[in-house]
Amino acid sequence: MRKVYKNSTEALAGLLRDGMTILSGGFGLCGVPMALIEAIRDSGVSNLTIVSNNAGIDGAGLGILLESRQIKKMISSYVGENATFARQYLAGELDIEFNPQGTLAERIRAGGAGIPAFFTATGFGTAVAEGKETREFDGRHYVMERGIVGDLAIIHAWKGDTEGNLIYRKTARNFNPMVATAAKMTVAEVEHLVEPGSLDGDHIVTPGIFVKRIVLLDQVDKRIEQRTVRKRA
């Protein structure tokens, strides 16, 4: 199977359609599949449901899809860094399904593992539990959460081989490994691409069986979301 594509546009060709659900890896601006997000923007596809820990920032990450008004609904944990998101949500132009961060991670992991639902104590008695089934186990109350499976997953990895085996670098791993398993089609962008057998098997986090298409990035713009520096002495 040919997995390597020349660019992000070719890697997404034939996969995008209006109204689909897309899972995106990343946390803040770390480990975010920027090039694939830009290709989605350029495609013009609309009414998207995006599953991601956060919505990027204004002008970067998923924020560019909000600016182009291609996102209809966000399933997220934290969106506090994006003013465009706030304006659209408060104006009733954007739907949001908030999740506690651990619950969102487990919903994605469960979807990838074929688990349709699970119970968690997190959120019981709050707005998070409204409309959801609850049960009591061993004297403690739990909320039922559904696993998430998307139409498409887009992820960013540090290094991969042409078979789709992936290695992530430090905190850029974040949501990417879970997202990679939880969609019908997974497309990965990588900073370094090597031949099969070049990667140490003990270092591979995402096996190639989950990855159907790969694109090697020409350049990587690693932005810092919140820069904190000390004053010079």
TrEMBL record:
Keyword match Transferase? yes
UniProt GO molecular function: CoA-transferase activity
Q: Which Pfam families match?
A: CoA_trans
Q: Which UniProt keywords apply?
A: Transferase
Cited NCBIfam families? pcaI_scoA_fam (TIGR02429)
Kindly provide the name given to this protein in its UniProt entry.
3-oxoacid CoA-transferase subunit A
